[in-house]
From TrEMBL:
Annotated ranges, domain ABC transmembrane type-1: 408-693
Descriptive protein name: Phosphate ABC transporter permease
Organism: Mixta theicola
Highest taxon of source: Bacteria
Keyword Transmembrane among record annotations: yes
Amino acid sequence: MIDNHIPVNYSNRTRRYVDRLIARAIGACGVSVLLVMMLLFVWLLWVVMPLFATPSMQAGPLQPALSARPAVALGVNQGWGWRIDSQGEGRFFPLNGASPEPTLQLARGPLISAATADNSSLLLLQPDGNFQLVQPDFSAADAMPRWKFPLGDGAFDGGSGGFTLAALASSGDKRWLAALSDGQHIRLLRLQAGRPMQSDMLASGPVSQLLLSPNGTLLFASSDRSLRVWQINGQRVTLRDTIPLTHPPRQIALLSGGRSLLLADETGISQWFDIADEQGVHLHRIRDFNGARAQQALITEPQRRVFATLSGSGELRMFASKREGAFFSHALGEGVRQAQFAPLGDGLLIERADGWQYWRIDNPWPDISLRSLWQKVWYENYPQPDWVWQSTAVDDPYQAKFSLVPMVAGTLKAAALAMLFATPLALAAAIYTAWFMSPTLRRWIKPAMEMMGALPSVVVGLFASLWLAPQIAVRLSGVLLLPVALAATLLLCGPLLKRLPSRWRQRLDAPGREVWLLVPLLLLVSALCLWLTPLSDAALWGKPLAERLPGGYEQRNLLIAALAMGFALVPLIFTLAEDAIFSVPAALGQGSLALGATAWQTLSRVILPSAASGIFAALMIGFGRAVGETMIVLMATGNTPVTEGGLFHGVRALSANIAVEMPEAAAGSAHYRILFLSALVLLVFTLVLNTLAEVVRQSLRRRYGQHERQG
């Protein structure tokens, strides 16, 4: 190999000083770039790591007991706690340990139980069958809590004595649905302010526990060997499910939103929710929580799908609906009678015989885990586990679904298909321009291709979204046929060229002259494919191919994104690959030709191996650009975060997902931090890809460099 380095000795001290200074400045800039990358990596980690932090609990001081009588209801709201004891006395008390408010007699006589609806209304049930509806009210302007009686302060007659079980639901503005049971029968009561009470009797059989969904549309009743579900639709009540149980349930509870039922028995705690199938909507057993057992208490959070078990020894274990087992445990001590979570899940009020205590909980994102981000999760009312990205929901915003797999799949599919489109075109153009094209024509083509690379990606995305997508939907059959037709045309040009008259062949023998034949021919074939094929297809079948696809066709889809992004990648890959091929010393090619090799043999066995490292670098840089592309995939696809979609369905890339949802994400929320996690995934993927590419490039360079020196 020829050494082109010419040693130069400078006698000018100023020149040597400037050279050393510039060399050090360049080195400092390189180190600065690495430091910036490391700082960016550390900053992203700093934002993301709280998602996976271990929860913690801090105990408040133990306060004196408010009453010697046990509580039948306990609650927390806006810095206040409240309790109702077994004799019907209610009391508010500040959680900071200040003096409690005076007691108020809410019901006359002893209470059997208290049922709550939305943590705001309570039904107090007495042994004689009478009941009363009360509400702890925290909406006063002076911030002082009060007891309200939405149906009046008098007791209502439940119809007969012997009721021991009660359930309550809020079915609308100042309307409630109550269910009472004596262990054998269930009575439904419809309550509304200013109107007489309506009641229905249900033939139920044995009942040990009773629950109503928060909106009053489902009634759950359990016994030793069965679980029954009634559908309530206005005045119509229908027994929907009767599910046999192998073990008698000890506790049942509803998670926030009322869509998931928890059933605790001697084998553990299971989650149930409705799934629609061919037989209709029915309750199904979905999962069993690892390590969960029926304990002294089963406590659910009011606004999140989190629950906890409290054992007789005072061990609190917390579970979330998206996790397999307990994600946190803490010892509270023995003697806990009652426990209730704060509405936001940031506190726990417990009561013992000797006093009460408020524990502060730091657990902002209980259901975020690596499993929920990367593995399939069985979400409420879904027919099966799946990867789902749904960051917001209209009726229940907390049940957000944060799976990164659909975006990662969309990113890789769009990038791979774009490279599949761009690589043959860019490399073929680079090879032809650097090796076969005349120098005069190359001086025009090379700058023109580089100018194409300066086209903003947002312009390409807008063009693909507004013009290309509708055109391909109409001409889909021609677009699919076009690559085959162009390849066949190029292959046929060789034999056809030999059949041309000799004077034509002599004119085309000069380097670069074949373009004048190939370009018009390829344009003619393209025009025929895009015009004649759709017309024939519509004439034969009556409608375009896009309307006949069995899986459906979305106008903005993976194909559109790949074509648009491939168009944007062609100039980049072409420029780098063409420079690598053109930079191969001319003596190598001339020596090969002088030894009798053809132009194609010289290209394939000498030029391309020598330029392999540069070509590989061009492809890796192009793939990195495709992975990080934002505007084209944002505008040219349907932005559909799905995993299974095919070529004619929408996708969503990680970069596009960040651009779409970051303006709507609340700072510091789980949504916000998971978007930063997406950026971290992109950064790590790019760094790993570039590192591997550099390793392979250096290996190729050493390998073919040795061959050149040996030659």
